[in-house]
Amino acid sequence: MGLFAKKHPTPLDGIDVVLADLDGVVYAGPSALPYAVDSLNAVATGRRLGYITNNASRTDASVAEHLTELGLTVAPREVVTSPQAAMRLLSTMVPAPATLLIVGGEGLVVEAEKAGYTVTRSAEDAPDAVVQGFAPDVAWTDLAEAAFALKLPEEEGGIPWIATNNDWTIPRERGIAPGNGTLVSAVHTAVGRLATVAGKPEVPIFEEAIARFGGRRTLFIGDRLDTDILGANRAGIDSILVLTGIDRPKHVLAAPEGSRPTFVLSDLRELHAPYPQAVRTDGAVTVGGATVRVNGGDVEILAEGTSQIELLRAGALAIWESGTPIFVLRVPERLYEDPFHRP
Q1: Residue 315 belongs to domain spanning
Q2: Rounded mean pLDDT of 150-157?
């Protein structure tokens, strides 16, 4: 998969199910990102629309309520959460009504109880597994309880450790904040064990969403290459990276093969806009009015065009198709200028 892999007049052509990430795609903190609500409402007029989130702090019902308050029409069943994926994974390892030590918020507790598990916050209750997810109020004491429960390695009879996700960061209204991956890493440093991850970029959360929404062709929208786009590629579905969240143009240019999106958009208005096809001539890639080529160790801009997003698309494809690692290339700063909205 990669940019322009299929000939779509718009990214939505031929798609009957659209799945969207939340943080950095629909909102940052409590507020909607520019153009997101209107663009997604337009998607929902002709296609099934669902949402996938690695954020484990809230329930599907509270997420649906928040989205509805922003101007979307969303039912809880249309929200697929990483705690749901965690329970799906855990059921194959420790069946209910086992006791789970929960590190995280209401979203994780509710899903554990819905699945029939017993919830504790203390290692002294001899839990059968630890499940860790993000919540803004997770404290050192919560991480310590997880470490106490995980002190014995699993190969020596220790209990399973499931992380809802491993996102290092999370976009907020004031900027970029530490995510669940940072908190999981703290426990890992203490106990020397690795968690099994249920959410993106692992496949179970995508499998749950695809099964729930059906459809012949699914498109996923995310803002992170290392979780959203990698996960969509692993699940075998088309993907969009939208530049309203975490990853920036320089990350797009340097994207490794497994994390390259099908489309790159400035914002969600471009879901409904024609998506220019790439034209290759004499080793150069042209997208709209922008032309870029890789010549030895240099990335050359032959024509800037009038659109920064088209220049980025042309540059990304030229670099990706060259097969040359970006760290050995001389890349002009103009190529990764970043006028795009971010929280």
Answers
A1: 278-336
A2: 92
Say if residues 250 and 329 touch (Cβ distance below 8 Å): no
245 plus 264 within the same structural domain: yes
Could you say which of 16, 23, 125, 247 is catalytic? 23
- Domain co-membership, 291 together with 329: yes
Do residues 69 and 165 share a domain?
no
Distance (Å, whole) CA 84 – CA 266 = 31
167 belongs to the catalytic site: no
Q: What is the pLDDT of residue 342?
A: 64
Q: Residue 162: which of 103, 113, 111 has the closest Cα?
A: 103
CATH number for position 54: 3.40.50.1000
pLDDT at 7 over 60: no
Residue with tokens 């903190």: 29
**Does 282 qualify as catalytic in the annotation?**
no
| pTM given for the model | 0.86
Domain presence at residue 5: no
Q: How confident is the model at residue 8 (pLDDT cuts 50, 70, 90)?
A: low
